[in-house]
Amino acid sequence: MKLTRLLAPRSVAVVGASTRPGSYGNLAVANLVAAGFSGPVFGVHPSAAEVHGVPCVPRIRDLPVAPDAVVIATPAATVPALVAEAGEHGCGGAVVFAAGFAETAAVPGTGAVPAGVRLQEELVAAAARYDMPVCGPNGNGIVAVAARAPLWGDAYAPRRAGPVALISQSGNVAVNALLSTRALRPHTVVSCGNQAVVDAAAYLSALAETDGVRSVALYLEDEGDGARLATALAACADHGVRVAVLKAGTSPLGASAAAAHTGALAGDTRILRALIEEAGGAWAHNPHELLELAKTLAHAGHPRPSTPRPAPPGQEHDTLHRVEHAPASPVENAPRHEPPARARGVLIVTCSGGDAAVAADEAARHGIPLATLSDTTEAALIPVLPATATPGNPLDYTAVIFGDTRRVADLITVAASDESVGPVLVYYDRPARMPEDAAAEWDAALNGILSATVPGPLLVASTLPDLMPEAIAELLVDHGIVPVSGLTEGILCAGALLAHSAGGDRLRAIAGAASSPPAGGHPSAPSHGGTPMAEHEAKPLLREYGVSVPDGVVARTAEEAVVAAGRLGGDVALKLSGRGIRHKSDIGGVVLGLGDPEGVRTAATRLLGLPDAREAVLLVERMVAPGVELMVAVRRDGVVPVLAVALGGVWVEVLDDVVLVPLPVTPGRVAAAVRRLRGAALLTGGRGRAAADLDAFGELAARAAVLALTENLDLLELNPVIVSPGGATAVDAVLERA
User: Fold this and answer.
1) Which fold has domain 1-138?
2) For 71-95, how does the pLDDT look when each residue is reduced to its tens digit (9 = 90+)?
């Protein structure tokens, strides 16, 4: 299903065009006229000759052309037939505003299918018959800003087009984005509505291939099909389109996963975030962050124009005082380096010690690295800074030289040239209105920022959102600089520029893993219809896939346990194993470090007397050498399958120290993920400890992931996995088939 004609129409018809002010049909026509849509526009009305000067015909089949887009602004009951008529006429797609479809709730206790659900099924069938995309129903429509084509059922004022697209499952988020004064410069805005025919992933795939789109803001309430979303993100990676995502609400965990540690640690929102981060995307917590991040991803990293493009007529910055570039001046001792192979960090520049301290705190809180300036760079800054300032990062140049254009430009240029610096974030607050004499100093400070030479992305953020007026924001964008509203938002946006996509191939592999699971499974692995396998059944399967587990023997009596312990030799662990037993330690079903026959006999007798032992056996295993306890788990009922690695053994939920990696994984990818744990120093040799064998752990986890995918497991949980300098061993296991 192609969305090209719908997203960038060259001709439009409005069905339900109305002479009644305020109606959807009236607004839709008025918006197209006000936007200056250059193609033919028609109205469809049973009796009106024209609406807002647009000629009308009685029926869709009477239209002289097959329009690229049809706006249907009529009651819900009429929509399926109109969609069918539009498809028969050869229209390229439709936008449906009306509510009253599948979003309507059933009457409690009746068991009847709501009429709205049946209407939506009829709409979908009609669209499928003609392979015609439909936006909605129950949405605000599509605004193709770049094409001057608002297919929009709400108030709309023409906007300055740019590189940012927005796909929103909330109509109000889309409306507010179009009304915002943050120099967003949208390219296309989509209000998805019920997504009856076209979902967010389909819009994302189409916009990724659209000329002029450099970032997409994605507001999700339902992430939908994971394979389709991963495929769309792959298209974004292929075309260099960055993505910012806001997920509203928390989906309920799957029942089987919720009963295990995996459900508590690998929640649905965390899984989606792991996928977005694989794609190099930015994660937002509210609509304001979403739009600021999308704007940053679109504008940063692109060449700054030598001559700013003029604003369209009527959109000049007439409230802004004249700002000119400072005369060029050589900066003595400014270090120049080729981009290094190592990672870079953010440089923060401000005239306020308080802002510098808060910005540093916010960077630490959000895990965003700051650049460490070299001794050479700090020495070069000393003659540029006032005597009261100290070179460093954050770089506080103090209010002493706030209005000194040359020195502000030079200090940013010097600091930004350091090889450790990636994005440069300059804080600058601009009151919307001020006396003429005060404005001169603010103009001079801004002029210094505009005149600086910065090799990488340059962001200018206000400390408070209302101190970034629209005129300033627009001016900054014209100069290739990203304006950001808010101190913390500035940190988040600069940090987002440090992320990198894993690439289209990796994302397509994730999409493949998220597709329909394989039928059947390993012939030696019993299927329990959703009941977890007993540990003594799971361990042989783990061995077959090369997952290291302790040597063990099954015993059904205390005497058999004694014999088994003797055969294994050394200290042993004794565990109760049954299909309904998940967390053995919670029921006292584990005894460790048994070294003599009498101890084994006593422990076995007690375990076999537990209430949970009626259909259980004893698993006698050789003790594993001490090490760091990790949990390795695979969860497949989220948006995509993921591998979860967590620190803590029985304390995993308390510590909540977890990283998620979408499947498939390699040993190296797992080992890299482990280093992102907060407690990674326990594994990498912190505080004098010997470093654990992360290569062996990565191999174990990767093999476990292959097992889960191949055997069609909904859940695999190895907890704990003991990791030491000598290797990695899965001590306990929960496996559950789909």
Assistant:
1) Rossmann fold (3.40.50)
2) 999 999 999 999 999 999 999 999 9
